[in-house]
Amino acid sequence: MQHGLVVEDLEASAAWLCDVLEEVFPEMAVAQAGCVAEGRQAIEACTPQLALIDLGLPDGSGIELIRQLAHGGQTPHIIVSTIYADDRHLFPALRAGATGYLLKDQARERVTKSLRGIAAGEPPLSPRVAQRLLRIFAQEQTEPEVPLSPREREVLTLIAKGFRLPDVAETMGVTRNTAAGYIKAVYRKLNISSRAEAALEASRLGLVGDL
């Protein structure tokens, strides 16, 4: 059985986020935590395959949990669910390992659609967030784009679909070291540093579904 986790201190928000997860993934057992400490306990009890994490929690920042899940390497979908769309919150979360960023002030139907897109390899990003990231990418594209090799494009596609290093290596039929080398090359060529940015680039290149 797959496991999901919602970390949210506001009861009303936690309730509808849990409802959305159960609607999109009916076979998923969803746990709920209201603070960083409870989130750590939930992660230790059963590593989730998907987590929705608020950033502003009573006893700390959700980024602490994002780092824990990212370093564990067993949670392919680590998604921020917050009201903050500014760079001060967005980029630290992505650098910590978040693979998606959803704003809670958008319609429930939009959140549901974003989560359904995960199965198709679409990055779960709210439109405002995606537009901000694309503007940043456009500003940074001061040098001609370096083309990716077929194997690098394959790696980028797998990363965008939520595959972790062991899964990438197994799918491609290569060692973990070789797969890690491909990933590093892709990140260097595209001038990116997070899985969410990789998903955006994969979408831009037409390797996965549009945002």
TrEMBL record:
Occurrences of domain Response regulatory (ranges): 3-119
SUPFAM superfamilies found in the cross-reference section: C-terminal effector domain of the bipartite response regulators, CheY-like
Record keywords, A-Z: DNA-binding, Phosphoprotein, Transcription, Transcription regulation
InterPro entries listed in its UniProt record: CheY-like_superfamily, NreC/VraR/RcsB-like_REC, Sig_transdc_resp-reg_C-effctor, Sig_transdc_resp-reg_receiver, Tscrpt_reg_LuxR_C, WalR-like
BP GO terms, sorted: phosphorelay signal transduction system; regulation of DNA-templated transcription
Domain HTH luxR-type, chain residue ranges per copy: 141-206
UniProt signal peptide: none
Modified residues (4-aspartylphosphate): 54
Keyword DNA-binding: yes
GO molecular function: DNA binding
Name of the protein described by the UniProt record: DNA-binding response regulator
